[in-house]
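fyi for ur records
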Amino acid sequence: MDPVTEVLRLSGMKGSVGARVEAGSHWVAELADYRGIATHAVLGGSAWLVMGDGRHVELVAGDVVMLPPGAPHGLTDAPDDGASMREATSVCWPSDGRTVRLGSGPSRTRLFTIYYDCNHLTRTQVLDEMPDVFHFQGGESGAAYLDDIVRLLGRELARPQLATGAVIESLVDLILIQLVRGWLSRQTAEQRGTWLGWVDDPVVREAVERIHADPATDWTTTTLAEALHVSRATLARRFQTAMNRSPASYVTQWRMDLAAVSLRDTRDPVESVAARVGYRSVPSFTRAFVRDRGMTPGAFRLAHRDAGRAGSGGN
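which gave:
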């Protein structure tokens, strides 16, 4: 399993269709209170994305735009340097793909919204430090078949069939992957210093792949450098530049993420969890876990199991 796939799986990153929008003329909607990453895909016509600071971006058929969690923004047919958003109508956007009709007259714009969110238990996140607006234009190279996937999802939403729910889940996941690929294909400085910074540095990439492939190995900056046949100083410098952290701090972060999920999801003894993530004794693992999570492994397990039971209505 490659690191991106593993991090998405471990963090529980999932998407859900928030709404299908059919809009005519003279419409505006504000989105300021939502969970996760908002993604808007235009199937037909055009719309304007207006940010809380007044910036606006035109979206046309085939375009997809992704925004960080909770970023205030709106959609409209004709922005006036953000002035229209001051009179915006807050819309309850469904989470099950139902249609929202906006504006007057016949439909001129068709789009849908996807929200991506995770369980936030893990610190390692693929999109934690994404740019404030990621606009991917239809037909842009770098995310092959994104426009085809968007159109297919639009057809599934418009004409549900047998197993449409499963199809939608798969397509929503594919859109996320293609957007990540599209961002990486631009090779901008925005990726440097984020978790995805390792992708374009072959030395750091191999280091991250080795850490993920075998987290129980006694990885230190020195042992990683030896395995990669580079100097310790070179690895430390390139890791810091690519990911804005040291190799040792990343090893610890990834181990703690693995341990946290294992403590929540399994009944494995703490000794087994500690060994799987590279700790030879429970006391050393406990000290590291307390430093990272602020509580002992046992207390963490109890707290998150209790939270899970409460969230499921006590069943």
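The first strand starts at residue 14 and ends at 25. thats all i got for now
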